[in-house]
UniProtKB/TrEMBL annotation, chains A, B:
HAMAP family hit by this protein: Hydro_lyase
UniProt protein name: Putative hydro-lyase BN77_p210007
Keywords on record: Lyase
Source organism of the structure: Rhizobium mesoamericanum STM3625
Similarity remark: Belongs to the D-glutamate cyclase family.
Length: 262, 262
């Protein structure tokens, strides 16, 4: 795939739509924003939108659909949110019931789609600045932890802040603070660096989600607010139905990562 | 008043509450964030919250109350939103019906308060950096214009982007872009500089709101998204009831301006 083509984001969506692509989207359509998805009934949409407003670091909103609409203004030409993600997760009352490639069969006219920024965008900026990203080097998922920091609740949505961790030398951590701070719509600057216990993480070698990665001598763990936070809050709220992307299987948008920098 | 005291923001609110202060809040409680207010019935709150999400530059949310609550988490110790602003405007179906010092009499259990960032915060940073702000020098209100840029609509809320204008030498405009860009929660970087016609402003000497200011030879007009935008959108939506602050009579919060910088 020609990842430098301006049409590459749409190509990825069409490959997902036609079933050609059912795997993760990492490294596809380089330069384009990939997005977390949370799809909820309209009667929960106000509480969830307010949850995102109150917790902008873990829940940086890129766009919100009209109820029942299968597109989101500005995110993708001819986007069909029911088909254009390679793999979905369908939840009933907080229980995972299916992982389909297409959610047309369970679509409802009251569903509202929330597109939430993802760390892929700032990782591209880190790599471009020569800051190594360990889980990418090691071909793993980023390690994620439930921290002792509580989110600001809204209605039925609450729960711990989930954080992702990237180990770095202090000099790279300083660069990473500067670089990711310029990307507030994809989690922004770290929320912590150094001692994991300080945010309630007792065993850095055993992440709650994703994979463990090597921490080398002299490196410190650096923690960012993570898009799993809203997923955990949704699971805890046990809505009648909710739909998310499957981990790593993101919505590839027509937005350029570079446009998210401030 | 001792404007450097950490209690000065609360002092201003108590003076408003007791009726001692009924005038504008400019230059009171220096260093503390002052906020625009929009108070709406719960049945319009989702559309308005989404309007703010879709238009973050004119509508940077600092906080949202629970329905009927007279406080907003994090904005002020013992805040009573019904009394702590020096002067309010009460609107019925988009028509201004009263400008009281207290809205306890019209309060309803379904009212939701939206606190929206205000340019006072970034003007303090501009002055601290030696960038002159003309309307402050001339003791006037900032000039504001309805631009030809449309906001992204949400439900009943729509309308033009209203912009504020500050004339500056190009070297100061460059500094101002850098400084205000660090304050995304109080309108952030300018949306335009130079030719007013480019954003549909035909007569820079006749603002739609506020006062005209002197533009000196060599200066260019610099335009920021303005908090009057949501007020105009609310007036256009003609809700049964809405409450705003009276222009210049802001909610003084316990948040420090410096904490808003990124």
């Amino acid at each position: 795939m020609n990842s430098t083509s301006p049409s590459s984001a749409r190509q990825v969506r069409l490959m997902a739509r036609t079933g050609v692509l059912s795997g993760p989207t990492a490294n596809l359509a380089a330069g384009f924003v990939q997005s977390n998805l949370a799809i909820l009934p309209r009667d929960l949409a106000y509480d969830f939108l307010l949850f995102c407003q109150r917790n902008p670091k873990p829940c940086p909103l890129l766009g919100v659909s009209e109820p029942g609409s299968t597109s989101i203004n500005g995110l993708g030409a001819d986007l069909d949110i029911r088909t254009d993600v390679p793999r979905y997760r369908v939840w009933e009352k907080g229980v995972l019931v299916d992982e389909p490639q297409d959610v047309t069969g369970v679509w409802r006219e009251d569903l509202v789609t929330f597109a939430i920024g993802c760390s892929f965008s700032f990782e591209e900026a880190l790599l471009a600045a020569g800051v190594p990203v360990r889980h990418i080097e090691e071909g793993r998922n980023v390690p994620m932890f439930r921290s002792s920091i509580e989110t600001a609740p809204s209605g039925v949505f609450s729960g711990p802040l989930v954080v992702s961790m990237r180990p770095m030398l202090p000099e790279d951590a300083i660069k990473a603070v500067q670089i990711t701070g310029r990307f507030p719509s994809v989690h922004g600057a770290p929320i912590h660096l150094g001692d994991p216990e300080f945010i309630g993480i007792s065993d850095i070698a055993n992440p709650d989600y994703g994979d463990a990665v090597t921490i080398r001598p002299g490196e410190i763990p650096v923690f960012w607010a993570c898009g799993v936070t809203p997923q955990a809050a949704i699971a805890g709220a046990m809505p009648e139905i909710s739909i998310t992307h499957a981990p790593g299987h993101m919505l590839v948008t027509d937005m350029l990562n570079i446009k998210l920098s401030v």
